[in-house]
What we know:
By secondary structure, the protein is α/β, with parallel strands linked by helices. Helices cover about 35% and strands about 20% of the residues. Threonylcarbamoyladenylate binds near residues 32, 60, 115, 118 and 139.
Amino acid sequence: METQILGCSRGSLARAKQYIEEGEIVAFHTETVYGLGANAFSDEAVLKIFALKGRPSDNPLIVHVHRDYDISALIGGEPPYAAALRAAFLPGPLTMVYPSAGKVSKYVSCGLGSLAVRVPSSPTAQAFLREVDLPVAAPSANLSKHVSPVTARHVYDDFNGKIPLILDGGACTGGIESTVLDCTGEVPQILREGLVTREMIASVAGDCLVYRLRAGERPKSPGMAYKHYAPRCKTAPCRSAAEAAELYRAELQAGGAPCILAERGVAEELSGYDVLDLGGTGEEMARNLYALLREGENRATLLIGVEPRLRGGVMAGVMNRWKRAFGETS
Length: 330
Ligand code: TXA
Ligand code: MG
């Protein structure tokens, strides 16, 4: 199968609609990362996603809908705070988990009894979802465990020849996946941190919990239990420019090609080395992280990560991905 990368046009949208209706998979741009979409009502199409990604069968998918799609038939009701959160943050990088009405394929939620729903703000995603006018089940468009894709090229690198179409909307401006928020309880609870932060949610809902996975416990959001976002080269976590320089020299001496990923200030200190600059603010680091992890794996034998020191706001989400890419450093 030939994989086409097309921008948003009448023709490409019509083709995308046809593929989705035929049970095919279409990759599409969102403001967070690219998604790998299938008709959420079709068992066969949803199962195709798991097979393509090599995704564990107990890791549920998010359904994506356009901004005017009425989700009330798909879910078993919502608490008042959820309506307020929708009004404040959607369309945008917030996924809301509701009791499921059992209308979409059972393979979407992997038997959890809940359904995760997202309304992306990307114009490409909106145009695509409006054209198909169906709930589209879509995980991030990377092979399972690999770094999530933030350009059409990244999707192509993982799925060339396996899917017919990638709807190209340019580089993703958000850069890390949506915040996943459990809206089935009295107080909303974050299952995966992202660009919509705990503070932002609490300011609208009055309160917001953050779920922490305890050892030996069955995770509320199965995706949290998996190693993720791993670059294909060796990785080495460290905490300072001096430590990074030492690891760098050792790799050079061993005949390898090292590369360092570090936040702005540290990257500037290491200007004589092959350095990838992660950025200076939380938003920049979120936008750059996955692109630079992929850049690093393509050009280095060893990617040395200097743990960013910045905290607060979206850094909770950035550090969650960082630790899963580099392993814990403490
Ligand atoms: O930004 C995003 O959310 C991207 C774009 C494509 O929209 N999608 C994405 O999907 O990151 P994926 O499949 O890579 O991650 C979905 C996460 C997983 O951690 C999964 O366990 C969790 O959402 N999830 C899905 N349905 C759930 C449910 N019913 N209850 C709890 N967690 C759920
Ligand atoms: Mg993913």
